[in-house]
Structures
1.
Amino acid sequence: MHYTTLISTEALAGSLADPSLVIVDCRHNLSDPDAGEAAYRSAHLPGAVFLHLDRDLSGTKTGHNGRHPLPDAAALVDTLGRVGIGSHTQVVAYDQNAGMWASRLWWLLRWLGHERVAVLDGGLDKWLSEARRVDANVFAPRPTRFEAKTPRATSPATADEILQHLDDATLTVLDARAPERFRGDMEPIDPVAGHIPGALSRPYLGNLTAQGTFKSAQALRHEFEAQLEDRVPASVVHQCGSGVTACHNLLAMEVAGLHGSRLYPGSWSEWSSDGSRPIARGG
């Protein structure tokens, strides 16, 4: 197995016996942080382990670094090894359907230089719709050693970097939040509504077909190129509310063959925590 962006349910079902494979359940619910783990204990893909967005895939919040800051790299390395992910493991991350939580693990592994990681296209919903087997047994992983490598993913963007380049057109922010949150019409989570000045709106759900799977590489490339016009992928920084769904847009650009875009992990929850940073509203 060597999957680096997406994997189909059919391909995964045919590879469950592969000894290099580790499947990770990433289901989460912002309004009920225990719901994902409870769902995992009820039923999950065969042999899957569970990683929690808050506990395992995020770091310590300070009030100024966003709602889901990046975990300490050394702590993440330990977490990955604990659940059986080694340097040569093929990782498949999944969530309920859209891939919004699974794409966070996908990006984190790339951040540590691990390329063999893919998101299950369509998630658990598609797996169940095809009457594929699930398991209620909590799998005890075999711990191993994970070694971070020189990352393929470029370094994360920072608030200071974005602030420095707001007016020089060398950096373009793509905002993955819903249009009404981008415009500042409403803000259900963070205390301030609006968006980073100059940002473009690209709601992450636009990456999916009506069936809940990712659009084709050709369709995604056409859409991103139309929105970005003559901007190069390496100039793009992805942002959302807290650095999670932004990974979905980054994954979609990779699927489209538009390589080199970056993540702003703090995203709107970090940006808006400092009243000195400018805020825009409207379309």
2.
Amino acid sequence: MRIREYVFALAIGSCVLGGCVLGGCVEQGGDRSPEGQWRALFDGHTLDGWTPKIRGHALGDNYRDTFRVQDGAIRVSYDRYDQFSESYGHLFYQAPFRFYRLRLEYRFYAPPLPETPDWARYNSGVMILSQPPETMAQSASFPVSIEAQILGPVEGEARTNGNVCTPGTHIVLNGQLETRHCINSRTSAQPNGQWHSIEIDVLPDGRIIHRLNGAVVMEYSGAQLDPDGGMADSKPLVAAQDGRTDIVDGYISLQSEGSPIEFRNIEVMTLD
């Protein structure tokens, strides 16, 4: 049984923000773009088609208006927070994807909240091949997924960008199974306050490629669930697939980790 089928069996009929976001309710074919064509996932004006999941809050609760639209961009804002309090969040697109190219632009537009952990300063990401948001525990900080990590520079710290992180998952790099949580690229973090582009390919041959401002910075393959759980509990997802660890498809989400960031021009090209 695939993850989406398992979720549908558990939660059939459940809808969020006026529209079903279950893989079983939203047919993947309905979110396919014509071959070779880009299709916008964000209309530039509203959060239609996107659902927030913030740690400690129910799916669909946009706590303190964390995710909002401003000047044609999805803005992650903390101006209504008293303190961050590990309120890690993700904004999920409504339908899963299998093979595709995703591209968008981002910029860190303001300093992080004072209490943001050092590792999370100027830190965000695009989560791909994610578990359905309905399967996340309310207390979960991150979905089981693959993260194309977005980092901005921090004074006194050498940082790379376009890294890969694996909450509850593993990847294959250079022919070897990798169980490290994050693996760095060799590309220095780009300046804060400026718009940069990130593109992620999830290809039919199993490869996943990260590009920053048009340049390849990371390539790997073999995305799979961690059968031992890891930092995110993937065991129920493995059980839902009768012990298989392969990831056949998944959701896309944008991350909030305590650093104000904006995302715009979010587009996808389906490849299957």
3.
Amino acid sequence: YDSFGDFLRRTRLSNAVLKKLSHADVFGSLRLNRRAALWQSLPTQSRSLFDNLPDEEIPAALPPITLWDQVAGDYRAAGLSLRGHPLQFLRTQLEQRGIVAAADLAHLPVDRRYRVAGLVLLRQRPGTARGITFVTIEDESGPANLIIRQEVWERHRDVASRSSAIIAHGSLQRVEGVIHLLVDRLQDLSRLLGGVDSRSRDFH
């Protein structure tokens, strides 16, 4: 397609479909970012009056989209982003609170307490685990594995079972290359991420 107008004339998609495609940021090859595409996807009074006109409407001058807005938009539309990770925008604030990056767990001293934060990717509770829940979270440096005993899960049930992003407090364990945090406290982090949805896979 040569332009958004060309795409529109040839596909005749509804405004609702165009809006969904715009939210998914699929018009990059037409040199339109998410915001510009959403603007052009707005309903008009009678689009058919202009179907045969060769000239394209001059796009409205819209304010630039910040990297955070682009990453957050990607997560809301697709559950991930190739532009960045939501936690990279909080890293300075997290460091000020003594929260380490997930990748640091590979070389920090074991049997000491640390805090790590991330989007929740996976929650699993195998039948043979005696009530233990295994959770994988992810920050901009990579994944971190959490072990949450049943009493800790029950004490922090709302955060443990519902939050899309968490801060985990616990003791670092590293055995034969397997790294995990034995969690004793959880905090909700999702409110600081503006509705970013990590779409975790739970109890599969």
